[in-house]
TrEMBL record:
Segments forming domain HTH araC/xylS-type: 11-108
Record SUPFAM superfamilies: Homeodomain-like (SSF46689)
Lyase found in the keyword field: no
Protein name, as recorded: AraC family transcriptional regulator
Protein origin, superkingdom: Bacteria
């Protein structure tokens, strides 16, 4: 039987991701925070959270990006602010997570698009 929330071993890693999503986050860092080997951490994380650590990190970044976009921050600035390499990388991940481009997201939310 799986616990309903991630075990305490993942708490520090999850908190680290939430606090440092806009920086490069390494799997080895997260594993060390959880006192697990890299492979064990990846396995436990996926079992407990339902996503790989990288997909979880991307989700955190995309949720923050949505907030910034709705606040009127241009997509080119948002990409850097939330930790993506460039606007193209950001747009690909945004579409994968949201099913639409950042500009389509803004249009659906009733906002004018800005580059």
């Amino acid at each position: 039987m799986m616990p309903s929330k991630p075990p305490a071993a993942l708490d520090d890693a999850l908190a680290f991701i939430e606090a440092h999503f806009d920086e490069p986050v390494r799997l080895a860092q997260l594993a060390e925070l959880s006192a697990l080997s890299v492979s064990r951490f990846a396995t436990v994380f996926r079992q407990q959270v339902g996503l790989s650590p990288y997909r979880y990190l991307c989700g955190v970044r995309i949720r923050r990006a949505q907030t910034l976009l709705l606040a009127g921050v241009p997509g080119s600035v948002v990409a850097a602010e939330v930790g993506f390499f460039d606007q193209s990388h950001f747009a690909r991940h945004f579409k994968r997570f949201c099913g639409m481009t950042p500009s389509s997201f803004l249009q659906s939310a009733g906002h004018a698009t800005r580059g």
